[in-house]
Design a protein that fits this description.
The complex is a heterodimer.
Chain A: H1 3-14, H2 17-35, H3 41-48, H4 57-82, H5 91-102, H6 106-141, H7 144-159, H8 166-180, E1 183-184, E2 191-192, H9 206-225, H10 244-266, H11 272-286, H12 299-322, H13 328-339, H14 348-351, H15 353-374, H16 378-382, H17 389-407, H18 411-429, H19 435-457, H20 469-500
Antiparallel strand pairs in A: 1-2
Chain B: H1 2-15, E1 23-27, H2 34-48, E2 55-59, H3 66-75, E3 82-87, H4 88-96, E4 107-122, H5 130-139, E5 145-148, H6 154-165, E6 174-177, H7 181-189, E7 195-199, H8 200-209, E8 212-217, E9 241-248, H9 254-269, H10 271-280, E10 283-288, H11 289-310
Parallel strand pairs in B: 1-2, 1-3, 5-6, 5-7
Antiparallel strand pairs in B: 3-9, 4-7, 4-8, 4-9, 4-10
Helix pairs in contact in B: 4-11, 6-11
Classes of the chains: A mainly alpha, B alpha/beta.
Chain lengths: ~500, ~325
């Protein structure tokens, strides 16, 4: 049978009413946990694993897939409306999305996120079906030196998104990098900067920092301004739906986001957060309205949201073809496979085609369901902004704290949430951007570990870093991205850049 | 808003401690890992077999299980309803992290399951046997890079023990630590490293598919259905089992300890446990009482010795 026949057969399996019901439970739960900061899809799937012992394999795997996609989507809602990313992959969405929401364009922001997620999920799932064996070969080419080069590229391109002052952006980034070295060094097992506090041994949880910086910091900032606060958020201005120009500006971003997200998700050390950073940087470069970035550019929501969903599908490539889980959620899904006596890996497509294709088909259906579930809710979600501020921020504080405690019930974790919240407040007060600190915490350890691994394998020979074509081209690309703006500035075209960087908080 | 309220309730349910559990099992790791799965499988079988009416699992992740262990030793003391899952990795993590709490501060009940370590090379590698790999290691220890799990874990210790058994200085080994078997797997498949070491189960599907060559396993004797020699029969005296165990709280009376031990023995003898282990591919290496304590003491001594020689413990 050809791939296409298998897919049709899979769709027939997945259209069974009970299976559809499981998919519905999955996407609903997934959206719910994505909305709640701190609690991610991994924990939900783990909690549901024992519940699904009684179900048949197809039903439970489809439910897990629904949770996974739903979680990726749900995170964007709070990012856009409340500036509170539900998980690390939707941090970038908050940058532009929240600006749009405050200008009364929350509806279009949510819509472009939902439709972008759908488009990306659809294309990436089809790519998973038809290209998985080829993509995985490409992903395996990436060794430590290639990952290091990719991290360099990410640092260089993402730093362009740091807003007005390069100095302030870099200060924030380096704060993040400093926080990133806390904990057990993975390559030697030695504790760094943990000061004897056992909870610090595993380093600082990205979601804790992100929730503290965005949610707690924001709540303190709003409270600090008290009655003098002028810029009251406008719930809805113009249409709740996307206008013709919104569509025109979004569709290319969706496609670009998908093209970036899928391969990065397929890489064993990639991840949805990195995909969303790179997509944001790409959108800023490609946009015809670069001046709008930092003030609510719709491309900055459309691209990253497409990228993180495409990356979720990409993650399934190494899981299904190699048995290689690359995210916590995928690891638990692997456990789910094993509980039914299935061993994902090089032989799964050959030994269990019905199940694999059933899963892929159900991903398509889960994706459709998410859109149906979420589009009508947008009108309701944007009303959140009409809740009086004190109540709204009290709610945000409650959910942020609950989410953090729910994942890791420890007073130290709560203490960190508060301390970072205060840090976030101070940074806002003095005009330092907060995204770079989170970016530093995510990218820092990866860049460090991959560099050290590359050098360990080559026994200290630095030329290894440019010795592979992939690594060399990525590094060359980073150099171009770094040098071109400098030359433009020297030639007197810097005016545009400076203007672009205008006033931004 | 409804979703938010729902998820709030959901989070609340997660955060609430078990109020009326017959047993609360602490999994000192994040959801999804081996210890978490062991705890959740125990939960399911204990309930299904009617050994206990109500079993709760609580995750306390961090630092190779030492965060959970420390919390357990202080807060569960004297409470016979509290259990903790742990394993061989903890033995090493306690030493490398200078943990103030050790396995002496809890009451180990029984070893439940275990996995042996496997040494592999990529299919494209010129190395055909474990002897050839060790010869390469002897010639230039730094030139042989090993991909495996976290530093100081069972995989790292296995390489250290092999080097020592082969007469190579363990401080010279070039061990590349990855966050887990999965990432290490990718490095081996991508020909980034010379060899790989991890639990057998992690590599077996790849070996069967012909993308990796299995050179040796760290078991006492050959494993049924696995076509590879043991390290011992190849002339390197290394036996290493990455085991998982269950322990009770400190400060229990002898009667309380035997009651818990009896429940765990019932669990081990049950049909449900047997089926669960089979579907998960875990080997039953049940060992309890004095025999387990003797084995534990032996493992602690050997682990501390090799971690010192690798230079991870001062």
């Amino acid at each position: 049978m050809s791939t296409f026949d298998f897919l049709l057969q899979g769709l027939a399996t997945a259209l069974d009413p009970m299976i559809l019901f499981y998919a519905l439970i999955g996407v609903t739960l997934g959206t719910a946990v994505g909305v709640l900061p701190g609690i991610g899809p991994a924990l939900t799937v783990a909690l549901l694993l024992p519940v699904t012992y009684g179900l048949d394999p197809a039903g439970s795997l489809i439910m897990f897939a629904g949770i996974y996609y739903g979680g990726m989507y749900g995170g964007s809602t709070t990012s856009i409306l409340l500036n509170t990313p539900g998980e690390s992959a939707s941090i970038v969405t908050a940058l532009e999305g929240n600006k749009m929401a405050r200008a009364g364009r929350g509806g279009p922001a949510l819509a472009t996120a939902a439709i972008g997620s759908f488009v990306a999920g659809l294309l990436a799932t089809l790519a998973l079906a038809f290209l998985a064996p080829h993509v995985v070969k490409l992903a395996l080419v990436f060794g430590p030196r290639e990952y290091f080069a990719l991290m360099v590229l990410a640092f260089v391109t993402v730093s362009s998104a740091f807003g007005d002052s390069a100095l302030r952006g870099l200060t924030s980034l380096f704060l993040g990098l400093a926080l990133a070295v806390i904990g057990i060094d993975q390559l030697t097992g030695q504790a760094r900067l943990s000061f004897g506090v056992p909870q610090l041994l595993d380093g600082i949880e990205v979601t804790t920092l992100a929730v503290a910086m965005f949610a707690i910091g924001e709540a303190l900032f709003v409270a600090g301004q008290g009655a003098s606060l002028q810029d009251k958020a406008i719930a809805v201005k113009g249409s709740v739906w996307m206008t013709r120009s919104d569509w025109g500006r979004s569709w290319k971003s969706w496609l670009r986001g998908t093209a970036i997200g899928f391969p990065i998700g397929a890489m064993p050390a990639g991840g949805a957060d990195i995909a969303s950073f790179l997509s944001y940087a790409a959108e800023k470069r490609a946009s015809k309205h670069p001046e709008e970035f930092g003030h609510g550019a719709i491309e900055g929501v459309a691209g990253p949201e497409a990228a993180n969903n495409a990356s979720a599908a990409g993650t399934l490539v190494p899981l299904l073809t190699l048995g290689l889980p690359t995210t916590a959620t995928a690891a638990i899904m692997l456990a789910g496979f094993q509980q039914f006596g299935l061993q994902p890996g090089p032989l799964l497509f050959a030994t269990n085609p019905q199940l694999v294709w059933g899963l892929i088909a159900s991903l398509l259906i889960a994706n459709m369901m998410l859109l149906v579930l979420n589009l009508p809710l947008i009108g309701l979600w944007v009303r959140l902004l009409t809740i009086p501020r004190p109540w709204l921020y009290a709610g945000i504080l409650l959910f942020a704290t609950l989410g953090t405690i729910g994942v890791n019930p420890s007073p130290v974790e709560l203490g960190m949430l508060l301390i970072f919240g205060i840090l976030g407040y101070l940074m806002r007060l003095f005009g330092y951007p907060i995204a770079p600190i989170v970016v530093g915490l995510i990218l820092g350890p990866m860049a460090e570990q991959q560099l050290r691994r590359a050098l360990a394998i080559s026994q200290g020979d630095l030329t290894t870093l440019v010795d592979s074509p992939v690594a060399a081209s990525l590094l060359a690309l980073s150099a171009v991205a770094l040098i071109v703006p400098l030359i433009m500035r020297m030639r007197g075209k810097g005016g545009v850049l400076a203007q672009m960087a205008g006033d931004e908080d | 808003m409804k979703t938010m309220i729902l998820s709030g309730i959901f989070a609340g349910a997660l955060a609430l401690p078990a109020l009326a559990a017959d047993y609360t099992i602490i999994a000192p790791a994040a959801p999804g890992g081996g210890w978490d799965q062991t705890a959740r499988t125990m939960q399911e079988v204990l309930q299904a077999e009617g050994i206990s009416d109500n079993v709760q699992v609580q995750n306390v992740p961090g630092a190779g299980g030492t965060v959970g262990l420390a919390q357990f030793a202080s807060s569960a003391s004297g409470d016979p309803s509290q259990l903790i899952v742990g394993g061989y990795v903890m033995v090493g993590a306690i030493l490398t992290n200078n943990s103030p709490v050790s396995l002496d501060d809890v009451t180990p009940i029984a070893r439940l399951t275990g996995e042996y370590e496997a040494i592999v090379v990529p299919a494209a590698s010129p190395i055909q046997t474990i002897t050839e790999l060790v010869e390469a290691l002897k010639a230039d220890p730094g030139a042989v890079s090993w991909a495996g799990g976290s530093a100081g874990g069972a995989d790292h210790i296995a390489v250290g023990l092999l080097a020592k058994a082969a007469g190579v200085d363990p401080t010279k080994i070039n061990y590349i630590a990855y966050s887990g078997g999965g990432e290490a797997l990718a490095a081996i498949l991508g020909n980034q490293v010379t060899a790989g070491v991890s639990s057998l189960g992690e590599f077996l599907p790849q070996v069967q598919a012909g993308t990796m060559r299995l050179l040796a396993v760290s078991a006492e004797e050959r494993i049924e259905g696995v076509d590879a020699p043991t390290l011992t029969e190849s002339g390197y005296d290394v036996v290493l089992q990455n085991w998982r165990m269950v322990a009770a709280a400190p400060g229990l009376t002898d009667e309380q300890v035997s009651a818990v031990a009896a429940d765990i023995e019932k669990l081990n003898a049950s049909e449900g446990w047997k089926t669960a282990l089979e579907t998960k591919g875990w080997a039953n290496t049940y060992l309890a009482g004095d025999e387990f304590e003797a084995q534990l003491a032996k493992d602690k001594e050997a682990t501390e010795g090799i971690l010192r020689e690798i230079g991870l413990v001062k």
